[in-house]
Amino acid sequence: MKKLSILALIALMGCSSAELVENWKNPDIVLFDANKVLIVGMTQNEDARDDYETKLHKEFKQRGVESMRSLDLFDIEFTSAERSEQELADVEQQLLDKDFDAILFTKVIGIENVENFRRSIDNLDRYYGGFEDDYLSHQNIYYDPEYYDDFTIYHAETSLYCICVGKERELIWRGSIDITDPIDVRKTINDYVKLVIMAMEEQDLIFRKETKNEVTGL
Fold first, then answer.
1. Range of 155's domain?
2. Does the residue 61 lie in any domain?
3. Is 162:169 a contact under the CB 8 Å cutoff?
4. Which helix (H) or strand (E) covers residue 116, if one does?
């Protein structure tokens, strides 16, 4: 996405609690379509996870794209403890068997020093790992009770992975988003979902922006 487009998205969000601060799209991808998407929200707050995945699921449904919440796929036991690489590979195979072709994966990360953290995500465009590596690296978000201790500002990342048959589980898009008002969880989730959908539409990822007729304006 061009810098101008990123600034336009931020301006459209107004006083939103969610702000797109980093954005990367696979340079080999122009358009990306998906027929069935797994929506994964990784956070210890079960109510927030439910709300987030449900709101995104509704957005997909409104746009005619089939999706499924991870809450309806991963049982409580799966997310309550560390999982192995093989277990994640088995999950990916199950998704392929059920005709999923993409995963939209969001993880919430607590940070203490925004400046230092932003320096660390400057290398975002050098990241080429797959969903399996991403999940394994951050899965303690689910079950480590001290993961968010002492953090007052939150940062989140949403990644779109292709799990298409015959292709590698490659990263299609990743957006890093600052959450500046995490106290109001419901408002934060609403803002976050809107920003993710807008960013994906802007880059022709699964969704397409509606175009108006130049003559009628409709």
1. 3-202
2. yes
3. yes
4. helix 114-120
Q: How far apart are CA 99 and CA 66, in angstroms?
A: 11
Residue 166 belongs to some domain of the structure: yes
Cα angle: 57, vertex 109, 40; to 5 degrees: 25
- Number of structural domains, the chain? 1
- Within-domain flag for 32: yes
Return the DSSP state at 81.
S
What digits encode the pLDDT tens for the residues 70-106?
999 887 778 888 889 898 888 888 898 899 999 999 9
CATH code of 35's domain:
3.30.160
Sheet with 171-179: strands ordered across: 18-25, 171-179, 153-162, 102-111, 36-42, 66-69
Give the contacts of 16 (CB within 8 A, at least 6 positions apart): 191, 194, 195
